[in-house]
Amino acid sequence: MKKLLVLSIALAGFAATGFAQVKKAVQTVTIKTPTVQCDMCKKRIEEYMIRETGVQKVTVDYKRKTTKVTFVTDRTNIENIKTAIANTGYDADDITANEESYKELPKCCKKPADGGGMKKTL
Predict the structure, then answer these.
(1) Which of 12, 60, 113, 114 could bond 42 through an S-S bridge, CB–CB 3.0 to 4.6 Å?
(2) Is residue 113 part of a domain?
(3) What is the pTM of this model?
(4) How confident is the model at residue 27 (pLDDT cuts 50, 70, 90)?
(5) Residue 115 CB: number of other CB atoms within 10 A?
(6) DSSP characters over the chain
(7) Is 70 within the bounds of a domain?
């Protein structure tokens, strides 16, 4: 009888602990990424950003030149996210792309002023 009582108390404790977990504050922001030009840019940013601490979801829209990021607010912030995008080689709102990272981008991902961009089809 004692074993049954101890077992039921232990199970109740584990159940209470599982339900008592606190939800983390999550925020979604949209960042202007004006130098994003193609599907390769999209893939590069999404793959890089999803590895950042606190980032849960990243969606790049290269036609609208925006990047939507969902993140846990107690693990990162919007400035860290913008800096991470800049470190990938792309402008992010008011932060310019990291020069070294930009140089490493494929030609199609570079600004048209630098001889890059997608070729126009007729």
Answers:
(1) 60
(2) no
(3) 0.76
(4) very high
(5) 8
(6) -HHHHHHHHHHHHHHHHHHTPPPPPEEEEEEE-TT--SHHHHHHHHHHHTTSTTEEEEEEETTTTEEEEEEETTT--HHHHHHHHHHHTS-BTTBPPPHHHHHHS-GGGS-GGGT-SPPP--
(7) yes
Per the structure, the complete domain to which residue 39 belongs is given by 26-107
In a domain, 115, yes or no: no
Classify residue 20: in a domain, yes or no. no
Condensed to tens digits (0 to 9), the pLDDT of residues 43-97 reads: 999 999 999 999 999 999 999 999 999 999 999 999 999 999 999 999 999 999 9
Q: Which two three-digit tokens encode residue 13?
A: 């404790």
**30: CB partners within 8 A, 6+ apart:** 66, 67, 68
Q: Does the pLDDT value for residue 18 go beyond 60?
A: no
The CATH number of the domain holding residue 49 is 3.30.70.100
In this prediction, residue 115 carries a pLDDT of: 79
Give me 1's structure tokens: 């009888």
Q: Looking at the 3D structure of the chain, how many domains does it have? A: 1
